[in-house]
Write a structure and sequence with these properties.
alpha/beta; 2 domains; six-stranded mixed beta sheet; five-stranded parallel beta sheet
Length: 280
């Protein structure tokens, strides 16, 4: 029979996986060592998301409050790495090489703190050569992707057998289904359409539906002249300029890419750099 602690820990890990699948960043605390009369026992876990939701427990009391504070702090740092923190639960424990807690418990707790990043889920909006090349890179990186194209033959399971979702319809129908909450399942939307008007309509619809949310990030392939026209059209439809300025166009790191395969590497490298906090 599973222990209560084991069930609670499994529930926390399951909850973390669900949050990651929904595109949230999660900071996870795991008790790895404990000595003395302390609330947190090895295996206890607690997690906090970037939206402020908490799950699990490492024993409560002052220890839990301090660990939660540290979890929220590392979530604010895009470059945060895992670390081990030792907490001393003694009255007047200051001055030791550990985080001191003014506690009567009497003991020490060693906790692993780590930030878990969701794997990218890319919406490839435009299933042509560049879209196919990007899907290949996504597969090699273990990223999830979906595809949209107004042309059915460029968004089907024959061309994209590993896509999570296949969307083939007009832009208006697609946008009508994609509410703010639903859109957040995508980390990035890449506008790669064969027709500039499709990309423009998608851009405006996505920005209006996304609202103040930072997710998904939106990027478009194309020239600066094309982007200027897109921006003017978006403003005329009531999109806030601050929202428009968050769009990346042209997408990709400048590596002199020319072929679809080179463009795919450039685009995916930029997404990786954004996720790791190397690029803003």
């Amino acid at each position: 029979m599973a222990s209560v602690r084991g069930v609670v820990t499994s529930a926390t890990l399951s909850w973390v996986l669900t949050r990651l699948e929904e595109g949230e960043r999660v900071a996870l605390a795991s008790v790895v060592e404990a000595s003395g009369s302390v609330p947190g026992k090895p295996g206890a876990r607690m997690a906090v998301t970037n939206t402020g939701i908490r799950h699990g427990t490492i024993g409560g009391a002052g220890l839990e409050l301090k660990v939660e504070k540290h979890l929220r702090e590392i979530l604010l740092d895009k470059k945060a790495t895992s670390r081990i923190e030792k907490y001393v639960l003694y009255r007047d424990a200051k001055g030791q090489e550990a985080t001191a807690l003014n506690s009567l418990c009497g003991g020490t707790v060693t906790v692993s703190l780590e930030v878990l990043e969701p794997m990218p889920h890319i919406l490839i909006a435009g299933g042509g050569h560049c879209g196919q090349a990007i899907s290949a890179v996504c597969e090699n990186l273990g990223w999830t992707y979906s595809v949209f194209d107004v042309r059915k033959e460029f968004a089907d399971s024959d061309l994209y057998p590993d896509a999570v979702e296949h969307h083939s319809c007009d832009v208006k129908e697609f946008i009508a289904r994609e509410t703010n909450t639903k859109l957040s399942r995508f980390s990035d939307v890449l506008l790669l359409g064969h027709d500039w008007s499709v990309d423009q309509d998608l851009l405006i619809g996505l920005l209006l539906n996304r609202g103040d949310s930072e997710r998904p990030r939106i990027g478009a392939i194309g020239s600066r002249a094309k982007w200027k026209a897109f921006k003017e059209a978006a403003i005329s439809k009531g999109v806030l300029e601050s929202s428009i300025d968050s769009v990346r166009c042209p997408i990709g790191i400048d590596i002199g890419a020319e072929s679809p395969e080179e463009i795919a590497i450039s685009v995916c490298a930029e997404i990786m750099a954004l996720d790791k906090g190397i690029r803003e």
